């Protein structure tokens, strides 16, 4: 029987791939994402799918907005994936592909399709094929990250449908039923996700304002230094009339 890695081992593996310290404001999010991915990937019932990958990618990209230095974000994402023995390039590519394929259908078409999820009804659509696989998996392991991936797809296909609470709940309930998921759990996870997005946007605004204030402060200080260093112009004395 293969040894199941521990959370501590996962965290150590992260630092093998990313060596720089993480900005304190973002550290908690990175650790929580890594631990969440760890707990699911070591579960015997977990099966990787592109919607889960989209949830991981979307969460990372949204909550890491404003991170400095910007060039460290790629290394951090790579380390998070590598820490759970996942391929970051596969996550990015699968997320991109499933999101692109979902745009070929409308929400109303999707609602019709989920009433009869079969390989024939899915055709060659990557997103629908993924839903069929989940529908047919009696041991499918639901996760919050899967919910975020699903929400990202719906928000891309028809953002207006998600703005109206009644319509949003109806769509989510129908999808939950087709995939044998708890509608209540799905909606609670997405409500928490939306609330966290609002908080993240507010924090980003505060950070932007603080950075702008610091920039202006530096400019003012530099301008003051230039004024002090500049040679003063003196007016030559005019000899008094005799």
Q: What separation lies between the terminal Cα atoms?
A: 112 Å
Number of domains: 1
Shape: globular
Q: Tell me roughly what share of residues is in helical segments.
A: over 70%
Number of strands: 0
Polypeptide structure, described:
With 242 residues, the protein is mainly α. The protein has one domain. Helices cover 71% and strands 0% of the residues. α2 (24-41) packs parallel to α4 (72-83). The longest helix is centred in the C-terminal third of the chain and has 47 residues, at 183-229. The model has no long low-confidence stretch (mean pLDDT 91).
Brief synopsis:
This protein is mainly α and 242 residues long. Helix content is 71%, strand content 0%.
What's the layout of helices and strands?
Layout: H1 7-17, H2 24-41, H3 50-63, H4 72-83, H5 88-102, H6 107-113, H7 119-122, H8 126-135, H9 144-157, H10 159-163, H11 165-178, H12 183-229
Sum up the structure in keywords.
242 residues; single chain; 71% helix; 12 helices; globular
